[in-house]
Every structure is written in structure tokens, then in C-alpha cells.
Specification:
By secondary structure, this protein is an alpha/beta fold. The protein has ten helices and eleven strands. The strands form two sheets. It has an eight-stranded mixed β-sheet with strand order 3-2-1-7-8-11-9-10. The protein has a three-stranded mixed β-sheet with strand order 4-6-5. Strand 1, helix 3 and strand 2 form a beta-alpha-beta unit. The longest helix is centred in the first third of the chain and has 25 residues. The N terminus is likely disordered.
Length: 265
């Protein structure tokens, strides 16, 4: 039995009387975000959401890297309330603007939205956006050369940042990292080496051999283990030691089980 989700817009404030149109838009967006979040909680990442709810505390600083449409941000807001901060990173222009729209609608005071692609250096990169039923955004957009046979509908140049540089320039340190960057995980962690070594925030991230090959996937695990992290993969609503992970079985697209979310702490 899942606990019912509480209202999760704690920073919302009234600024005069909203128009009927604004009230309707806000109600629609609230329903859409809640539905998106419940899909993660009940189906796509029940173990990851449970981990967030067990680990993220009021007052924490959370980095949501690959924030997409705020499905995970919903739970971070639940956990933090009016305290703590969320730093969301989303390089897809359409989704970045969508997150800004949500921030304005709900007056999120403790959410900082950034248009950067997070990697191991500051600069520029091409973001490849696959065809997604004609929509100008995709959950599989990436700045790496993906192994998936996508038909790319567009590319756009985006700014890149490393977490170590971002944290120094903004004088901030994360207490929790959520990373969903479609194959660019290792470069994200390489660019956060100082933070990972000195502060050891728990990490929830997606990683798939079909994007980068099994060698790069296991190299990502090894990189974190060499920094002192202990790894787990999420199997349904449970955490299993990374030593038990077998990509041939656990990432078989034709099998009943598919494990692409990992926890390192």
C-alpha cells in the first residue's frame, strides 16, 4: 500500500488574485506533475523514490541533474518543504522553459533552475534530441554519441558545466545527487570528483549498457567505488549489492525485469 502523496508546493505564495485562466493552468499542471510523479513511484522507479523519501531531509541541498519534467523534483519538494534548496539542471531548451514556467506558477522559492548540460568541463556541447512523436523534447536527449539507433530530429548547442566548478562558483555543496543524463554519467562524476571525495553525497542515477556499452557502464561503477562509494542496483522496490548485478540478465529489454537505476553511498 502506497502512502498518499501530500500537496507538494510548499513554497507557493499568493500574489494578488489570480485570473481564472491562471487558476485553470495551475490546476492542470499540478495534476500533470502529480501523475508523472506517481508513475515513477508506482511503476518506473519505486525503489528510487523510496530511497529519496528515506534519505533526503529537510534543510538538505539537492542537485537534480536531468530534471526533465519535474517528476523527481516533486518528491524533493515534498521532502524539503520550505527549507533546503534544489538545484535543477535541464539543457533541453523546451524543458528548461517548462521548468521556469512551473517555478513561476507555483512560486518555488527554493528551486534554482539551470540550463546547463552537466559534464566534466565548462564549455559548449551539441545536444542531440531524438525524434519523439513530433514533440520538441525527448527523455533520451544526450550530449554523447549514443549507441541507440535514434533518428535525431534536432541538435542544439548548449552550455556545459562541471559540478566542482559550479559548486565553487555558487558556494554550494549537495547533500544528495540525482543524475539522469542518458549515458553521460561517468563524465558527470569525473567533473564532480572533488565534491564526491570530500563530501560523499548519496547518489541516485540511471545507467544503461545500451547507451554506452557494458565497459563504460562498469567503468562508471568502478570510478565511484574507487572514491569509497558502496554501490547497489534497484530491483523492484529493493536494493541489491552491485556485485550481484548482471547486465545480461538485469538489462535484458525482453525480460520481465529491467534494472537501470543505481544507488551509490
Amino acid at each position: 500500500m502506497h502512502t498518499e502523496l501530500i500537496d507538494t508546493f510548499p513554497a507557493e505564495r499568493a500574489h494578488g488574485l489570480p485570473s481564472v485562466q491562471d487558476m485553470i493552468i495551475k490546476k492542470i499542471e499540478r495534476i500533470k506533475i502529480r501523475s508523472r510523479a506517481e508513475k515513477y513511484r508506482d511503476k518506473e522507479d519505486c525503489g528510487g523514490i523510496a530511497y529519496i523519501r528515506d534519505t533526503v531531509k529537510r534543510g538538505d541541498i539537492v542537485f537534480d541533474i536531468g530534471a526533465h519534467k519535474a517528476g523527481y523534483l516533486y518528491f524533493f519538494l515534498q521532502q524539503l518543504g520550505n527549507s533546503g534548496s534544489i538545484f535543477a539542471f535541464e539543457p533541453q531548451p523546451v524543458l528548461y522553459e517548462y521548468l521556469l514556467k512551473l517555478q513561476r506558477l507555483f512560486s518555488w522559492q527554493n528551486v534554482n533552475i539551470n540550463p546547463f548540460a552537466v559534464t566534466n568541463q565548462e564549455g559548449k556541447a551539441l545536444l542531440y534530441i531524438p525524434y519523439n512523436k513530433g514533440r520538441p523534447s525527448s527523455p533520451c536527449a544526450t550530449i554523447i554519441e549514443s549507441r541507440l539507433p535514434f533518428k535525431y530530429q534536432s541538435t542544439t548547442e548548449v552550455d556545459t558545466i562541471s559540478l566542482d566548478e559550479y559548486c565553487k562558483s555558487h558556494n554550494v555543496v549537495p547533500d544528495f545527487l540525482k543524475v539522469d543524463v542518458e549515458g553521460n554519467e561517468l563524465l558527470v562524476f569525473e567533473g564532480a570528483k572533488e565534491i564526491l571525495q570530500t563530501r560523499r553525497p548519496p547518489i541516485l542515477f540511471e545507467c544503461e549498457a545500451r547507451f554506452v556499452g557494458k565497459e563504460n557502464m562498469f567503468r562508471t561503477f568502478q570510478f565511484l567505488q574507487e572514491l569509497g562509494y558502496k554501490g547497489y542496483f534497484i530491483l523492484g522496490d529493493t536494493m541489491r549489492p552491485i556485485a550481484e548485478f548482471n547486465y545480461l540478465y538485469h538489462q535484458d529489454m525482453t525480460a520481465h525485469v529491467y534494472c537501470n537505476n543505481f544507488i551509490f553511498e
